[in-house]
C-alpha cells in the first residue's frame, strides 16, 4: 500500500476508472453479440435495430478512449457488412 497521500488517491481513482472501463467494454460486447445473434437468426429488422445500438456504444467507447478509434471503426464496419448481407 502506498504511503503518500497523492499515491493513495491515484490508486482509488485508477480503480474507479478501471471499473467504469470494464463496464463499458462489457456493454459493447453485449451489443455486438446481440447483432450477431440477430444476423444468425436472419432477422433483418432486429439486426438493424441492434446494429444502431451497437454502433452508438462503439462510437461512445472510442470517444471516451476506452477503445481505439480504429478498433471501433473496424468493428462497426464488420457489423454493418454482416447486417447488409442478410437477404
Helix vs. strand class: mainly alpha
Any idea of the CATH class? Mainly Alpha
Biggest β-sheet strands, sense, barrel: none
CATH architecture: Up-down Bundle
Number of helices: 3
Shape: elongated
What is the third-level CATH name, the topology? Methane Monooxygenase Hydroxylase, Chain G, domain 1
Poorly predicted regions: none
Q: Indicate the percent of residues in helices.
A: over 70%
Count of individual domains: 1
Tell me how many strands there are. 0
Distance between the termini: 58 Å
Approximate strand percentage: under 5%
- Written as H for each helix and E for each strand, in order along the chain, the element string is HHH
CATH superfamily: Ribosomal protein S20
Radius of gyration: 17 Å
Family: Belongs to the bacterial ribosomal protein bS20 family.
Function: Binds directly to 16S ribosomal RNA.
Protein name: Small ribosomal subunit protein bS20
Organism: Stomatobaculum longum
Amino acid at each position: 500500500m502506498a504511503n503518500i497521500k497523492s499515491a493513495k488517491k491515484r490508486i482509488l481513482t485508477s480503480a474507479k476508472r478501471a471499473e467504469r472501463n470494464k463496464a463499458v467494454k462489457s456493454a459493447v460486447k453485449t451489443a455486438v453479440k446481440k447483432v450477431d445473434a440477430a444476423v444468425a437468426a436472419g432477422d433483418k429488422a432486429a439486426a438493424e435495430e441492434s446494429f444502431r445500438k451497437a454502433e452508438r456504444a462503439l462510437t461512445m467507447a472510442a470517444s471516451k478512449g476506452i477503445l481505439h478509434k480504429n478498433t471501433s471503426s473496424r468493428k462497426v464496419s464488420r457489423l454493418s457488412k454482416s447486417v447488409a448481407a442478410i437477404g
